[in-house]
């Protein structure tokens, strides 16, 4: 069954990143419920402290597509909303992800991918940036592809 080109009845989970430490689950739910029926909303925390991200799950893909189509402001902050990727937590913990420190200010994500591509297939790379100044924080991460080749490259 489809409604305006979107599957009806198929839950759609979104990742919401860059949220304020003041934002709680109720605020997250209140903000995103205006787009459609939410099955779940949660701000992730560890030891009672907000971790700066959360998840919302809509009962169908239609509202999620609408959310992704426009900038989302929550508690005065522009937040990063993406489709949640199943199994992403497992990938983050895999040994295929390496920390890269001591980066020069002009090193870009593409430069990281190009450089580390010589060691194996790069699935993802990121240079960490200060949100306020938009300047490199001098470190980043490279995640090699899953499988034997990626594991060997990360060693």
TrEMBL record:
GO process terms (BP): regulation of translation
InterPro entries for the chain: Nucleotide-bd_a/b_plait_sf, RBD_domain_sf, RRM_dom
Domain RRM: from-to ranges: 12-86, 96-155
SUPFAM superfamilies named in the record: RNA-binding domain, RBD
Pfam families: RRM_1
GO terms for MF: mRNA binding
Keyword presence, Repeat: yes
Assigned keywords, A-Z: Repeat, RNA-binding
Protein name (record): RRM domain-containing protein
High-level lineage: Eukaryota, Sar, Alveolata, Dinophyceae, Suessiales
């Amino acid at each position: 069954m489809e409604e305006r080109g979107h599957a009806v009845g198929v839950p759609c989970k979104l990742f919401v990143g860059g949220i304020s430490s003041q934002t709680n689950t109720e605020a997250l739910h209140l903000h995103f419920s205006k787009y459609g029926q939410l099955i779940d909303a949660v701000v992730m925390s560890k030891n009672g402290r907000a971790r700066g991200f959360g998840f919302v799950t809509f009962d169908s893909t239609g509202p999620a597509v609408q959310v992704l189509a426009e900038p989302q402001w929550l508690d005065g902050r522009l937040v990063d909303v993406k489709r949640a990727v199943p199994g992403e937590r497992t990938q983050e913990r895999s040994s295929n992800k390496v920390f890269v420190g001591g980066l020069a200010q002009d090193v870009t994500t593409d430069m990281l991918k190009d450089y580390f591509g010589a060691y194996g297939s790069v699935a993802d790379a990121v240079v960490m940036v200060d949100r306020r100044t938009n300047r490199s924080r001098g470190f980043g991460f490279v995640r090699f592809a899953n499988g034997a080749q990626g594991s060997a490259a990360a060693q």
